[in-house]
């Protein structure tokens, strides 16, 4: 997006001061190996307008494939309209954009938490132009975001906005106990989803086997697996593109293994990516990670519509922050829940295992456990999320 394609307020052109306040300022140089999210994320302190500060905080939200499929139309210093970025959909693995909208809900959660830190209450009007079809994604809004002055205390979970991470490494320690899980629930206060923990080894093992098979199906479905290739980043592209997936945030640390892996994948070759040996190696590593899980947390909604996806995302993002507060990490294993044809049989098997019947839907299944801190992922420059207001 060109900088000239920027913002217009309800009263006319955005002032030069407001424009300059949202210009991207790199908060120091971030080198590979960084374990400080602040070095790779927008700093709200660099922006002048409240809405821009709150949006900058929301950008820390977890989202599928780190697509950051969000765009915003700023109306005035305290209001913005939120859309899905239709150019960043996952058409192969998320053909109805359910997961993308869960990511939107994650953004809204962190936007609201961030607003509390800034002394505001965030008012969210969901689907202000009504629900929309897949073909209308990007043209009809997810939500209207408004900041109102508030005297309420800062949300406790704010302290973890810059420290939470999706951790894809091996998990260590003992299984998560129900008492610890209940503390996370008490702190996160889910409003829209039925959040359940499975930690009994007799129930956990068969669940993990099915969840692992979801990755098997994805890896051997050419279109689904190639979509991950398109969002994969290595070496200089990680910092340049500031999105997508990479080995550095997946538990592959510095050293010979990382160098060899990134060298092989440096041109994102389809031949290398879809090589049988490469896939077998990935699946072996993934299996070990899945089986190290200390529990599985599921998020299920009574219905399966657009609003359910968005609101479930809010519950998930808050729970992730609450888990981090207790020293636990999360890693989504939601392949089995996806809606593309190759996953249909396994999805049905998982629903039977969980005793979930339509219209209910398990929106997310995530493993939980303790691990070492990994590298933090990047977020794109704030300018890239802003669209031109038209009158």
What does this protein structure show overall?
By secondary structure, the protein is an alpha+beta fold. The chain folds into two domains: 8-164 and 380-385, NADH Oxidase; 178-369, 3-Layer(aba) Sandwich (NADH Oxidase). 36% of the residues lie in helices and 14% in strands. It is built from twelve helices and ten strands. The chain has a four-stranded antiparallel β-sheet with strand order 3-4-6-5, covered by helices on one side. Strand 1 and strand 2 form a beta hairpin.
What structural category arises from helix and sheet content?
alpha+beta
Uncertain segments: 1-32
Could you state the order of secondary-structure elements as H and E?
EEHHEEHEEHEHHHHHHEHEHE
For the record, give the distance between the C-alpha atoms at the N and C termini, rounded to a whole number.
19 Å
For the biggest β-sheet, the strand order reads 3-4-6-5
Strand content: 5-15%
DSSP strand tally: 10
Output the CATH topology of the largest domain.
NADH Oxidase
Instruction: Name the overall outline.
Output: globular
The average pLDDT value, as a whole number, equals 89
Known CATH architecture of the largest domain: 3-Layer(aba) Sandwich
Number of helices: 12
Which CATH class of the largest domain is shown? Alpha Beta
Whole-number count of domains: 2
Helix content bin:
25-40%
Rg calculated over all Cα atoms: 20 Å
Biggest pleated-sheet summary:
4 strands, antiparallel
């Amino acid at each position: 997006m060109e900088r000239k394609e920027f913002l217009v307020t309800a009263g006319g052109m955005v002032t030069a001061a407001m424009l300059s306040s949202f210009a991207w300022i790199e908060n120091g140089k971030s080198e590979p190996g960084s374990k400080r999210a602040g070095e790779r994320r927008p700093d709200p302190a660099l922006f002048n307008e409240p809405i821009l500060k709150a949006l900058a905080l929301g950008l820390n939200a977890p989202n599928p494939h780190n697509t950051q499929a969000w765009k915003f139309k700023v109306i005035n210093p305290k209001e913005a309209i939120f859309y899905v970025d239709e150019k960043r959909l996952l058409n192969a693995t998320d053909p109805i954009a359910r997961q993308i909208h869960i990511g939107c809900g994650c953004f809204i959660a962190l936007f609201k938490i961030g607003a509390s830190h800034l002394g505001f209450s965030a008012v969210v009007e969901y689907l202000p132009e009504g629900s929309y079809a897949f073909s209308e994604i990007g043209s009809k809004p997810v939500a209207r975001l408004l900041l109102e002055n508030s005297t309420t205390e800062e949300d406790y979970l704010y302290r973890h906005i810059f420290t939470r991470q999706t951790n894809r490494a091996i998990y260590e320690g003992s299984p998560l106990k129900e008492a610890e899980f209940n503390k996370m629930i008490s702190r996160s206060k889910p409003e829209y989803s039925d959040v359940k923990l499975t930690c009994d080894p007799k129930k956990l093992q068969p669940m993990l086997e099915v969840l692992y098979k979801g990755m098997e199906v994805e890896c051997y479905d050419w279109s689904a697996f190639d979509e991950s290739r398109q969002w994969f980043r290595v070496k200089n592209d990680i910092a340049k593109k500031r999105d997508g997936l990479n080995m550095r945030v997946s538990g592959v640390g510095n050293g010979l293994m990382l160098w060899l892996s990134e060298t092989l994948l440096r041109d994102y070759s389809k031949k290398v990516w879809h090589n049988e040996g490469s896939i077998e190696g990935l699946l072996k590593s993934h299996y070990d990670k899945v089986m190290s899980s200390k529990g599985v947390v599921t998020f299920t909604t009574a219905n399966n519509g657009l609003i359910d996806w968005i609101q479930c995302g809010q519950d998930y993002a808050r729970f992730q922050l609450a888990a981090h507060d207790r020293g636990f990490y999360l890693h989504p294993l939601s392949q089995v829940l996806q809606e593309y044809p190759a996953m249909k049989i396994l999805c049905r098997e998982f629903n039977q295992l969980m005793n979930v019947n339509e219209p209910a839907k398990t929106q997310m299944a995530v493993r939980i456990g303790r691990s070492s801190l990994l590298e933090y992922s990047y977020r794109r420059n704030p300018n890239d999320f802003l669209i031109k207001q038209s009158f």
